[in-house]
Amino acid sequence: MTKSRDESDAEKKAHNPSRRKFLKGVGIAGAGAAVVDKLWIEAEAKEEQSANGQTLSGNIKVTLDVNGEKRNVQIEPRTTLLNALRNHAEPAITGPKLVCDVGTCGACTVLLDGKPAYSCLVLAVDATKKKITTVEGLGTPENPNAVQAAFVEKDALMCGFCTPGFVTTISAYLKKNPNPSMAQVREACKGNFCRCGTYPRVFEAALAAARSGKV
Amino acid sequence: MQQQQQTAPKPKKKVKVTRVVNGIEQEVEIEVDADSGPGWGPNDKHTLLNHSMTRVDGPLKASGVAQYTYDVRLPNMLYARILRCPHAHARVTSFDSSAAEKIPGVVAVIKGPLPELRFAGAAVAAVAAKTPEIAGDALRAIVVKYEVLPHAVDAKSAMAPNFPRIVPDANGVPEQNLHEKQKRGDLPKVEAAFATADAIVEADYISLKVHHACLETHGIVVDYSGGDTATIYASTQGTFTIPGDAAAQLGLPETSVTAIVQHMGGGFGSKFGIGTEGMLACKLAKQTKTPVKLMLTRHDEFVMAGNRSGSWQKLKGAVKNDGTLLALQARQYRLGGIGQGSQAGQPYIYRFPESFREIYALHTNEDSSIAMRAPGHPQASFAMESLIDELAYKIKMDPVALRKKNLVDPVYHRQLDRGAKAIGWERRNPIAGGNPGPVKRGLGCAVGTWGGGGNDQCKVDVTIARDGSVLVAVGTQDLGTGTRTFTRAIVAEEFGLQITDVREQIGSSKLGGANSSGGSTTAASLSPAVKDGAYKARLAFSEKVGSLLDNAKPEEMTFRGGNVSAKGKTITWKQACNALPSAGVTARGVWRTELQATGIHGAAFAEVEVDVETGQIKPIKMVHVQDGGLPLNRLTMESQINGGMIQSLGMALWEGRVMDAQLGMQLNPGFGDYKLPGTLEMPELVPIIDDDDKREAVIGIAEGCIIPSLGAVVNAVFNASGVRVRELPITPDKILMGLMSD
Q1: Radius of gyration of chain B, Cα coordinates, nearest whole angstrom
Q2: Contacts of B67 (CB under 8 A, 6+ apart)
Q3: pTM of the model as a whole
Q4: Same domain (yes/no): B367, B320
């Protein structure tokens, strides 16, 4: 497998029916296709790693490309990307939240080469060759992206702990589909949970961000 | 002889306020201090309050830079984890942590406080290590041997007279698993009334334990490296509940411990004090003289961080054919695990001329239930609203009409009318399950109430600096309810400024005192004190700047649009602030009872679709009409009403703790199996603020708006399918079973 792969390559693999079927067959289907998509990226990443034929152990230095900056972290190979960002990067990157740690809630969603992934299911060592974008990389309080601005405008957040995950997922989705229907928005973020009850306003915010044409 | 200091009583004045007395809203006269500032004024005359304001911490949260307790990372900080007991009831017979302690990176292992473990998940030990991964290794390396004792996690086993007692009372003597908490009413009179009834419904209503599922788990970061002070970052609903608890564990004076709560990821009633996890974290920090972070894992959170108690209610209700409720008999079991559980007494908000109730707590080997958004109320409301609905169908009366006939408070009447219109109640088929085709729609309704008044614990400091900046500071916490936003807005409005002209500082126990956010008391406790502080700061400010406005008196000055005017003269806010002394002016506000009230009403309606071939239920639309006096912020109030509807819906259709009776363990301690409402399940949600409520007073609504939707959904399912499911959540199997037994 080549070290870097372009978008069209990735697209092709993502639509390989037999692999997709396999993932569904092992019982992930219940968690929804969005999860499958995200798991799919992990599965691919693993393949890539093992193709290198390398066994990693001990405390190793890993360089991550996060929000356009190279970040060195000293970690054990088993460290998830989420924990590497939160517990090892200097300064800490805590936008992605640790909520379930097993890929069921979406609060830790980051973008790997522009595609949403649960960072609790990705090993940091498997993310070294990817461009990692966290919610902080999408915009700042002073200069938010269209989705972040719409979340504030529509009150699509309450306690805010699920917000980074939703913002990241929706930001990526609107790039793929700039003019989604309500049903498509619901489908796009079905891998994210909120407990306070912001869903209706999350949908409104996503649609408003799309309408703004600034995505 | 000691001279008793005589202080002249503060002069008083009388003001008229609206209060709910015996369930009816009425105007009453109360006495307040004569020097109290003015009231809020009419609800429709505000410039910022009662408008839709985006929340001031929104940009921080949407860009991921808001710092939560979970995000705190201190130099050298250790990560702690808890070893949980795998048995529902056990005693530790041997404990060996030597292997764990040898793992590089493991810094400390401590044993938990309890000799006997009464539920699966109880803390046995805690470890602190350099990384959370190593802490996990340490847990796996600890060898514990248990003497396994008999357990019961289901109500019926625990109730059996010969079953071992589960919980010791305050004196250490085991109390009966089933014990009476309350008995009220006249049973012979109730029975006599039953004899005169046209219709009687007798049924058991059951709800499972449900979980708060706060996305930020419980936990704290203890910043202590030895020495005589400590700072505690806590995910808590009560900033001021933390220092005392932590100080006791650290052996420090309470005043030497500071609690910090900048942002917190949900509480819903479950986060007061430092809890078991906080105690263990403090002990580890004390032992290692190193900062320690202990956040529960999601699994921990499910099995040891509390839950909404389950309920089992045996109700018998009677009605006359004209809809007059006659009598109610209720036997209520609170299923609170090793705790006492919580359940409002029946007949809840309805009035039966004769009623009799017995309430019991029933212990099982499960972690203690704790407060959850309107503790005990959704359970009681679900049972009573189901019963009322069943009675309505029995006498062939419209459920809205039956409620109106028996609810004396006219507020419910207007809310039921408003909600009925919004949902399209006229479309309702009076015959349950009577619509054609396999996919049937149905409508249901219910009503609810809550207190929501405040208390006098808040001390708010409002400071205006010479550069024109304004700070409002109080130690309170914002749970995501919008506390920061309304705190700013009240001060901004008082001074005719924009919300962005004011900064708030909250979430520190070093700031002015504040109450915990429980019982929907935050808004009604805090907002009067903020208003009082703003008013007093305005007086102090006006005295200083009067010289710039022809020596105008404070009461002659108006503050509008960033300007200060008096005697026909107008200067800008900044110009006025130039007249302040270098320290600016600061005033401290305290609670004023006349600025808040208690007693709210809500009416909920739901439309659902039931597929009678598969049992699948799809919520289509929910409407909730809610009063709350003066809405401080319409946008965040609507969000809270949405949240109430969604959490209520979850409890109705999907959520519930599932226990394995044999193993005594929870089978669904994670989001993969515990079914939270998700994006695909969302119906159309219509939050309606009842602006016919003209009370010029702030009332908390967070809990009121979770109560009635549950009954509305359950009743809609019946109307759609003809199947009365009396055990929550209403899963498809229960619909199919019901259809088969027809």
Answers
A1: 28
A2: A94, B262, B263
A3: 0.93
A4: yes
- Cβ distance B62 to A99 less than 8 Å, yes or no, reads no
Name the residue among B263, B670, B676 with its Cβ closest to that of A195.
B676
Contacts of A32 in chain B (CB under 8 A): 680
Of B70, B636, B671, the CB nearest to A155: B636
For chain B, give the mean pLDDT. Answer: 95
B115/B580: higher pLDDT: B580
* pLDDT tens per residue, range B177-206: 999 999 999 999 999 999 999 999 999 999
Residues of chain B found within 8 Å of residue A92, distances taken between Cβ atoms: 71, 73
Nearest CA in chain A to B480: A159
pLDDT in tens, B536-547: 999 999 999 999
What is the CATH classification number for the domain harbouring B47?
A: 3.30.365.10
Instruction: Report the distance separating Cα B427 and Cα B418, nearest Å.
Output: 15
A31 touches chain B (CB under 8 A): yes
Residue A26 contacts B, CB cutoff 8 Å? no
- Radius of gyration for chain A, computed over Cα atoms and rounded to the nearest angstrom: 17
Instruction: Look at residues B570, B595, B620 and tell me which one is the last residue of a structural domain.
Output: B595
DSSP states along B51-73: B----TTHHHHHTT-SPBGGG--
Look up the ipTM and state it.
0.96
A200 contacts B70? CB cut-off 8 A? no
Nearest CA in chain B to A92: B73
pLDDT digits 0-9 by tens, A120-139: 999 999 999 999 999 999 99
B325-335/B354-362 β-pairing: parallel
What CATH number is associated with residue A19?
Answer: 3.10.20.30
